């Protein structure tokens, strides 16, 4: 494997131009003085910012219509309208489609994304078709794609789903999902016991969609914290959306943030539409891992989403009313090392020994990279330059 030398870039966090030598898929040296590397492939990235590869921690690849003709959104304004629109038009539009997923992964890779965690629908009607389609597209992509077996239409209220979730985990799906244990399944204790049981049995990660808001959502977060601690699943549990965290009063919020930190539960936000965004700054100050993702990307749930995680970081920063550079950097952290931590990836960053998943952008600072989200000039995965 050829060594690669990135000459003169600005590694995030270093504060000065440096040479980065990559060897055998890892960052070998980060040096303020010029590195001599005979035989290395050299890329001059002077004046440009070098970031760790972007991590998309929450999307739905199996649902995407990306890469095909524009499909005008046809659902009504209610959740039930969106669910019936999704179920009703899938066959007509060929969802899930390996070609569409492939097109989206290609777009994501060009935009510097090196890891993706995607929630794949599992239910008796779809079976494991989505899991197989995502697997097929992922096998041909340089992106490291991990799936969450996602019960989009409920577990307890949709007989046969629990067995399929287990089948998905047996087949190698990396995480088990959940969905509004109260709002959809109407029995939070049983719902959570079931999915935590699966995660414990199969040694997988767990990522729960929690839209349930207010005190109800807050109470469900406590149930998640309790189970994470009881089963010793620190670092393997994430709550996606967690609207309640953004809605509760300060005291209730503080109490939950402390609990999440203590249990090692990550929070994943998409910052879409006008849905509540968890308090990113407070969560980070308490040591809670914060990650982000697009949620749907151009699908039957909505027409938005570009696959660009710097643009998504901008939405997270904007919705969090971040203006100062150091605040905006928290959103970039969620789109890089925060996402990596949520996915359980070790050695993620720009230090010697870290995996060489890197992206170069023509920006003078991390905050500028987020706000402008310019075209990527170089993308590297496992020490190999994929795009430049
Ligand atoms: Zn989602």
Automatic annotation (TrEMBL):
InterPro entries xref list: Amidohydro_3 (IPR013108), Metal-dep_hydrolase_composite (IPR011059), Metal_Hydrolase (IPR032466), Metallo-hydrolase_Enzymes (IPR052349)
CDD domains (UniProt xref): Bact_CD
Taxonomy, superkingdom: Bacteria
Amidohydrolase domain residues: 99-386
Entry's transmembrane regions: none
Name of the protein this chain belongs to: Amidohydrolase
